[in-house]
Fold:
Amino acid sequence: MISAMSVRAIRGAVQVEGNTPEAIAAGTKELLAEILKANSIAVESVISVILTATPDLTAAFPAAAAREVGFESTPLLCAVEIDVTGALPRVVRAMATVETTLAASEISHIYLGGAKALRRDIAQ
Structure:
């Protein structure tokens, strides 16, 4: 039986090493690659991606790194996370909207490095 395609959102986050273009790019690329791999998604099946960064990350746009790894034709949006006192610093978050045959319960949301603390209930 062939499953019907559905639109699903996949969440994820990564804590990057520092506020440098290299660290932001490396973290963003790793996060997006893991989201695709864990959910067997091709870039062509990604409808759009919203990327956010904590207010302490100002050295680069996460979307620029996404374009370097195949998301040139994917609509991307960057935003700043709200500045909550005591929140985990240096975090890039992603919410990818995708077309997939996976059921909502089969989606793997990806939390890497220190960002695993954000969602211990679903962190990989």
